[in-house]
């Protein structure tokens, strides 16, 4: 049977209820909160706090913060007036049971709606990506068709020009032959005699052509030639000079496939939400806000395994390592985030400032003040009007000048 918490504190204004519940040493992970318009439950075994609220509150704008061994709730009222008390005074168990069941049902419906909305959003994103890809492929096909059409038109024009040249040559040859016949006809040879001479010349050329034409050999017998090829992974021909490089590449690909298959087997046990890097980032941010830095590192690390191209995961994990004093890991994650934040554009300027400050802080804690000053000055180039950055950079300069003196 749970122990009911009675040493809570609350205050109110005309529009808001402020409630503080002591957690009695419970960690953030063990706290279960259910909140609706008329019911609030905070369960951290073996303790339980239940509040059957005096008036309905706006659950959509309600907030809860957990830290320093206490849970603080801000509950906006639906009607602006002063409450006589925090909870209803009835001792009717059936009424309380009905309110409790109604609250749990609303909580389940809310979670189901959020899950459905998230699934619809993911489906819409996939549909948009597919439509964009199909559009790009269609544009690429249109470009290729235009190139083919231009090449066909060019070839047709060249063929027409060649046919025109051949026709002109044939006309010139015919004109030349007619001219020769006209010159021969201007002599005193009778017409029949001239025709016989031309015919004799043509017969002489035809007989000469027949004598020169060689005898063609008989056709060969048909048959099949078997051709075999050496099996090869690469589509290009084998070059002996590249054999070591190809073997090294194949070795790396095999290792990568083994690593991916092992990782896929590990990720099969995860839920659908735990396979979403955006959900993991939000979970890591919440753990960091609640002071659970180890849990935040685990969430960010799983998100990086799912998608290692998101700079915010590395930068946020660097902040967790700073809190845990894993300074070398903080430097490594900050450097990876800065590598992913290239090229430098206005859209990622704030992220580059955060990553530079986190790496600079890690260097300074390792007493590498010169390297830390470089990162702080890089952040100042992006945000030169930041007074806090200017003060920190001046402190590091004073430390370097004092050590040099």
Automatic annotation (TrEMBL):
This is Dynein axonemal assembly factor 4. Residues 113-126, 196-206 have a biased composition (Basic and acidic residues). Its main location: other. Keywords: Cell projection, Coiled coil, Cytoplasm, Neurogenesis, Nucleus, Repeat, TPR repeat. InterPro entries: CS_dom (IPR007052), CS_DYX1C1 (IPR037894), Dynein_assembly_factor_4 (IPR052004), HSP20-like_chaperone (IPR008978), TPR-like_helical_dom_sf (IPR011990), TPR_rpt (IPR019734). It holds the Pfam family CS. TPR repeats lie at residues 353-386. It is found in: Cell projection, Neuron projection; Dynein axonemal particle; Nucleus. Residues 133-167, 250-277 form a coiled coil. It comes from Characodon lateralis. The keyword Nucleus applies. Residues 3-87 form the CS domain. Residues 107-126, 168-225 are annotated as: Disordered. PROSITE patterns: CS (PS51203), TPR (PS50005). Gene3D superfamilies: 2.60.40.790, Tetratricopeptide repeat domain.
């Amino acid at each position: 049977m749970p122990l009911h918490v009675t040493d809570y504190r609350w205050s109110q204004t005309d529009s808001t209820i402020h409630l503080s519940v002591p957690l009695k040493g419970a960690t953030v992970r063990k706290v279960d909160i259910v909140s609706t318009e008329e019911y609030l439950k905070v369960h951290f075994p073996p303790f339980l706090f239940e509040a059957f609220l005096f008036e309905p509150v706006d659950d959509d704008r309600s907030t809860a913060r957990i830290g320093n061994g206490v849970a603080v709730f801000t509950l906006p009222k639906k009607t602006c007036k002063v409450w006589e008390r925090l909870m209803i005074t009835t001792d009717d168990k059936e009424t309380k049971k009905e309110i409790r069941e109604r609250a749990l049902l609303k909580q389940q419906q809310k979670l189901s709606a959020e899950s459905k909305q998230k699934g619809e959003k993911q489906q819409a994103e996939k549909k948009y990506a597919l439509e964009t890809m199909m559009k790009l492929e269609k544009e690429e096909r249109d470009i290729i068709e235009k190139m083919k059409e231009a090449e066909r038109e060019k070839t047709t024009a060249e063929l027409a020009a060649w046919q025109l040249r051949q026709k002109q040559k044939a006309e010139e040859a015919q004109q030349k032959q007619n001219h020769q016949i006209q010159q021969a006809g201007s002599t005193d040879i009778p017409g029949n005699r001239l025709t016989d001479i031309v015919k004799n010349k043509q017969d002489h050329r035809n007989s000469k052509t027949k004598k020169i034409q060689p005898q063609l050999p008989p056709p060969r017998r048909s048959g099949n030639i078997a051709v075999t090829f050496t099996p090869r992974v690469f589509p290009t021909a084998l070059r002996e000079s590249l054999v070591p490089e190809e073997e090294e590449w194949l070795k790396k690909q095999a290792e990568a496939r083994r690593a991916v298959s092992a990782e896929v087997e590990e990720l099969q046990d995860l839920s659908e939400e735990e396979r979403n890097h955006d959900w993991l980032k939000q979970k890591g941010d919440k753990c960091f806000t609640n002071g659970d830095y180890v849990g935040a590192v685990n969430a960010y690390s799983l998100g990086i395994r799912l998608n290692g191209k998101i700079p915010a995961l590395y930068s946020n994990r660097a902040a967790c390592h700073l809190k845990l004093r894993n300074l070398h890991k903080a430097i490594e994650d900050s450097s990876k985030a800065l590598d992913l934040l290239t090229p430098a554009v206005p859209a990622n300027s704030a992220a580059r400032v955060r990553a530079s400050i986190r790496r600079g802080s890690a260097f300074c804690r390792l007493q590498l003040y010169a390297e830390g000053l470089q990162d702080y000055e890089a952040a100042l180039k992006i945000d030169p009007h930041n007074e806090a950055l200017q003060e920190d950079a001046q402190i590091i300069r004073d430390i370097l000048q004092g050590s040099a003196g």
